[in-house]
Every structure is written in C-alpha cells, then in structure tokens.
UniProtKB/TrEMBL annotation:
InterPro entries: CBO2463_dom. Residues 72-99 form a coiled coil. It comes from the Bacteria. Keywords: Coiled coil. This is Uncharacterized protein.
C-alpha cells in the first residue's frame, strides 16, 4: 500500500448499508445515515451466502483523500471516449425507433 502519498492519517470508520440491487457483477448498497450510495464488484464483498436485496453489510473505511491537483489525462480521455460511444449508441437506437 502506498500510504506515503497521503497527508492525513487513517481515520477508520465503521459503515453499514442495505443491499438495494444485486446483478451478475456487482452489489449496490444504500449507506445508512443518508450518506449516499455504494456500488462495487461482487469480488470485493465477503459473503457466506449469495447476497440478496434487503441484507445488511458492514465494513471499515476511511475518507478518500485527493492525492494532488494533477488530472490524469488518460482517464479523462477514456471517460470522454465512453461518453461519446454511449451517445452514438443512443442516437442509433433513436434513429431505429423512428424507422
């Protein structure tokens, strides 16, 4: 783990949430205390049984910390490409619906 890039020490916080969606690859959780929404790949969850909507999960986490002011241009480029691709697909679908 590369902790030397972090300026603040870890402040581990226990979090809980309720499963609101399970699909083939991910689990979606509403965080208790109106703190938001969390979605992660299934492989990141420790489960004794198949997760189901309504089940509760708990985990320890810290606050995400910005590592610096620099923007990773590679990620921005990939995000923009994906958005353009999605827009093109929507446009094609709309064109097909009109025909």
């Amino acid at each position: 783990m590369n902790n030397e890039r972090l300026n603040y020490g870890d402040r581990i916080i226990y979090m809980e949430g309720v499963v609101v969606d399970v699909d083939d690859c991910s689990i979606s959780i509403d965080l208790k205390g109106r703190l938001g929404f969390f979605k992660a790949p299934k492989r990141m969850f420790i489960c004794d049984t198949e997760p189901k909507v309504g089940q509760e999960f708990g985990w320890n986490m810290s606050f995400p910390e910005q590592l610096g002011p620099e923007v990773n241009d590679k990620y921005v480029s990939n995000i923009e490409k994906e958005r353009r691709k999605q827009e093109e697909m929507r446009a094609r679908l709309d064109d097909n619906k009109e025909d």
